[in-house]
Amino acid sequence: TVNAQCKAFTSPLNLDDAFSVAIDWATDRVFIADTARHQVYLFSSQGEELDSAKGFWFPNQLEVNNNKLYVADTNHHRLIALDISTDKLVKTDEEFDTRTENSRKLTEVWPSSFLLRPQQRWVINSKHDMSHGGIYIFDNDGIYSKKLHLPENADPFALLQIGQQVLITDFSLDRIYRYSLNGEYLGDFDSAILQKIQQGLTERRAHYAKLDSVFSILFAIALAGGFLLALYQQYQAQNELLAGQVSSQTAIDEPVLHWITPTNRFKALSYSMVLFVIALFCTLIVLLALHDFSLAEFFGNTWQIQLLVLILLLTSLLQLRYKIGITKNTLILHSPIKAKIVCPLNDIVFNEAFIIIGESTLRLDLLYKLFSASDIENHLYPVIKEAKQIDHIKRQTTFVTTLSAYIIQITIVCILTALFFYYGVLN
User: Cα separation of 8 and 227, whole Å?
Assistant: First the structure.
């Protein structure tokens, strides 16, 4: 019996995000891939840094073999070997591109794990999300031989040769596959102890997947509810503010000559689109239920699309709130979000494409979609012709100082920031 005790390296390691460790058992030297900083380090058994090598791009798995350190240089799409016969990391000419014609078509181009055999190199080429890749077999010179046939939805994670078989762990399906040295599938690895562990992992995975779906749905509902609540509160606040302003304006006391409202055709199209989306969504749910598909998984995986569709539908319905009232000296605008705007005719600004009424900018092409051409030409145009006309540059200068422009700018910044954190940091 050997009594062994673990202890920390004598000096703290200056690592950022290490993905892989390899040990040279003949010398007890330790090799670490500092993946996030694109370097590979060589340490003594006591934690003394002996050497480091740069020039990698997200190095992943490391493997020691015959005085060489093999590195899966993921974002350079290659398997490369370093000479470690001394306490230095020295680059060799032994390297090859792990991409094949078929792997490029399948977007399986990111080597993450590999297995070294006397005359073969087995490489896991992952897809863009570093999962659900394929396993490709090459010879020592990097000549492509074959691709393994994996079960459907397999997500190979690591390779290990035991005797005349190669074991492959599946991160997604919680399975371990057995393959011959020629790459033939021999079935799953059967072990009573591992079966209990795998079953427990599968149950935990399903449990957390359900929690993720539930919280995703709750987040979507909360976001949509917050959006509607904000619109309602803004509408109420602006109505209260307008109530105090209207009493001081004599123009509003004038009889309204004409109200321009959305056409029946536009209303019918808006309501039809909403009904069509609802019917399509209900039909999809029924089809998924009939095919025993998990509705929780469906809602959890597609909540972003559902939220986007909901926002588009609400935007379309809010367009129906547009209404323009014209008096002798005043134009009254009911917009989708803002409260009623009362604007004297001499304060209206327009050009060939836009009309600026107070803090609202209306596009003429949108007006023709909302209102009838006869209403616009017979009632709105005569009023607009008496307003102040500006060129395109002045119109842009006026627009960027409005509340709508600020809202658009803030929204774009929030979306870009969220995308940066999601794709650039979390993933």
Answer: 52
Task: Report helix, strand or coil for 158.
Answer: strand
Q: What are phi and psi of 346, to 5 degrees?
A: -75, -5
Q: What is the tens place of the pLDDT at every residue in 8-28?
A: 665 556 666 678 899 999 898
Which residue type sits at 161? Q
- Cα–chain center distance at 161: 37
CB 141 within 8 A of CB 152: no
How far is CA 187 from each of CA 179, 419, 426, rounded to the nearest angstrom?
7, 41, 35
Only one residue has tokens 């540059």, namely 393
**Does the pLDDT of residue 60 top 70, yes or no?**
yes
pLDDT tens digits, residue range 192-239?
777 777 777 778 877 777 777 777 777 777 767 766 666 666 566 555
Separation of alpha carbons 216 and 300, rounded Å: 6
pLDDT one-digit tens code per residue, 34-46: 888 889 999 988 8
59-89: burial string, b at 16+ Cβ within 10 Å, e else: bbbbbbeeebbbbbbbebbbbbbbebeeeeb
To which H or E segment does residue 280 belong? Answer: helix 264-290
Q: Which residues have a Cβ under 8 Å from the Cβ of 379 and sit 6 or more positions away?
A: 257, 258, 260, 326
Q: Which tokens belong to 206? A: 């399903």
Sign of CA dihedral 182, 186, 187, 191: negative
Name residue 28's amino acid. Answer: D
Is the pLDDT assigned to residue 63 strictly greater than 70?
Answer: yes
Instruction: Answer for the pair 123, 136: CB distance below 8 angstroms, yes or no.
Output: yes
Of residues 193 and 403, more confidently modeled: 193
237 sits in the region (left: phi over 0; alpha: psi -120 to 50; else beta) called alpha
Reported confidence tier of residue 86, pLDDT bands at 50, 70, 90: very high
Q: How far apart are CA 71 and CA 179, in angstroms?
A: 23
The first and second tokens of residue 380, run together, are 């709105």
Half-sphere exposure of 336 (CA within 13 A, CB side): 13
User: Order of strands across the sheet with 18-24?
Assistant: 18-24, 29-34, 39-43, 49-53
Task: Count H helices and E strands in the chain, helices first.
Answer: 9, 24
One-letter amino acid for residue 121 of the chain: R
Residues 6+ apart with CB under 8 A from 139: 119, 120, 121, 145
